[in-house]
Prior knowledge:
The structure holds two protein chains of two kinds. By secondary structure, chain A is an alpha/beta fold. Chain A has two domains: 25-139 and 300-355, Periplasmic binding protein-like II (D-Maltodextrin-Binding Protein, domain 2), CATH 3.40.190; 142-297 and 372-425, D-Maltodextrin-Binding Protein, domain 2. Helices cover 49% and strands 14% of the residues of chain A. In chain A, helix 18 (377-392) packs antiparallel against helix 19. Helices cover 78% and strands 0% of the residues of chain B. By secondary structure, chain B is mostly helical. In chain B, helix 4 packs parallel to helix 8 and helix 12 packs antiparallel against helix 13 (271-300). Chain B is flat, with a radius of gyration of 25 Å. The chains are: A alpha/beta, B mainly alpha.
Amino acid sequence: MKKYLIILFIVILSIFGCSQKAGTITTIKFWAMGNEGEMVTQLIPEFERKNPDIHVVVQQIPWTAAHEKMLTAFAGGSLPDVFQMGNTWIPEFTVLNSLEPLEPFVKTSSTVQLTDYFGGVLKSNIIDSILYGIPWYVDTRVIFYRKDLLRNAGFKEPPKTWDEVLRICEVMQRQAKEKGITRYPIFLPTNEWVPAIALGMQSGGKFLKNNMTKGNFSGPEFTKAFHMLATFYSKKNSPSGMQLITNMYNSFSEGLIAMYITGPWNIGEFSRRIAPELQNEWMTAPLPSMDSTYPGNSLPLGTSLVISRISKHKEAAWKFIEFLASCEQSVSFYKITGNLPPRKSAWTDSSLANNKYIHAFHQQLERVEPLPQVAEWEQIVIRLQIYVEYIATQTMTVDVALKKFDAEVDQILEKRRWLIEKQMKQ
Amino acid sequence: MIKTSKKLQHENRTAAAWLFLSPAMTAIAIFFVVPVLSALIMSFTDFDIYALGNLNNVRFMGFKNYIRIFETPLFWVAMKNTFYFVIVGAPLSVFVSLGAALMVNSKLAKFKPFFRTVYFLPVVTSLVAVAVVWRYLFHPAHGLLNYGLGYFGVDPIDWLGNPNYAMPAIILMAVWKSFGYNMLIFIAGLQNISEELYEASHMDGAGGWRQFIDITIPMLAPTTVFVVMITIIGYFQLFAEPYIMTEGGPMNATTSIVLMMYEQGFRWWNMGYAAAIAFVLFAMILVFSVIQMLIQRRMQS
């Protein structure tokens, strides 16, 4: 009997003990995508040491399923407290009214200073002048090129304008013909929308018109950009199908391609996978321009950290964002993942300042323009990809393709048109 | 007196039957009837991401979703792809499984249980794992398939990257993945054919081929109709293979109707439109099933 009493006593004690402990510790859920989701766990112990009253549970989500999973989580009311989000998704999630405005938090924060962020990137987080996300890392596209091949073609510097790119292509094609080899001077993948949108941005194209309720891709600006893109494929300056390049890194090493528009993750990949004897012969440069202002505009991609509107631990969630957004942590994150920090002051750190490949990204990030902030943007550019394939394979002419594409865009934006008209009437 | 008691008894029995059926009926009502009806209602609205944010943004569309489906070029591409898959893939699957069943069931075959298991293995293997292996097999430069074809002087084919070869590649994998199931049904059918028929025909001097044409095929007819029906219904719902292997590409060459529905519904959250696609597919499968049932009835009578 006595024994039982003791056990009972212990049980009661432990219950109270536990509940007391749980009362002081706040657990926040954090969803992060792909490789970042794995790597960020290395930073968490430091955060929990500094904030012993907050416990962070990280859930890793594959990139390919992230968008669907977040929408479903919203529908089921189970979004986590903090999550990572591609900054082009923010308009869509504000339509759902699912994100917490962050201005009140930023105002009282001593560590998050908005002026320190690259302007174009920060703008992608502001919808109708309300801030919804804090950039976590940035991504933009630049040119990776073979120095030796450009030199052989008589160009000591990377191209400053697209006309110059075309001249380089011409010389390289001639040289390849003399040697009897195949060469695609510039690789513009047909399954990507980025080169098309970057060119469109540079030609001054407003992609959407009428308060962003109708497609404007068949307008003169984007038509000019798409014609230029089509020229690269029709002159065989760029491979017109993905099957021609099975391994990009081998193709680059073999000289099958000489220039390639891609993002920061490829700095690491190129260092590992380009042939060792060529390691001093590749370099990065900002995008060429359609006019005289160099560098040409590129895209402000990357991901942001956001707080769910229904979160019960917004204060704790904000503390966690502040921690990840600090210069110190964004530099550590760069060191373990290669993801570029969104804050200008972080770029003075020696690990970034001494990396010669990073310089082009720094230059480029000062020249990025936000993409149209409509919920349907992702759907629109995924469709655009198909039309890039159509013009690359010459299944359609540029003008026909853009007319058809605009018709599709108009249909995608039909609901948005209706909603805006409804608002106007009220 | 007697009549009423009989009637009572009958009523009791009916009540008992309902009572026994009720758990299953409730489950079907909650998990089948209600979702299907709500999907039907949804297919007449434009339920989408804006509606998810605010229910006032739902509009009643009448048949507009259905009209829009038939006006969308991608739908016709998806239709073409799905029919390509059904018309080429389903007969191929039936022939392969019949062939495998005949071989495994043959008196000459050894290690029957082993082969039955081996041929059935793909059916129970996870499709995602299988897809990873098949992607290696299909690899244009290092794939086993191109390596084998190379022996016959065939140039390397980019199976999953070329719009002309992507669907044949998907069919190849789908048939391999699913023929084991039909094979088992065929084996059961073959074992039901009385041995006496073969003996009698043997005495009349019929050879192996003659026996196959005049005994095996007619006796297997009911099984074949069943297999063809479930195969066609299953193949109309092509989804997982392109979703994992090609994501519908290249140039939409492997976008099936279900994949298009999934993209519209869960990727872009155009639920109303996606629900309408689902009902179009349902109508198509219904038509095919009715045709097949009519053929079956005629054969029986």
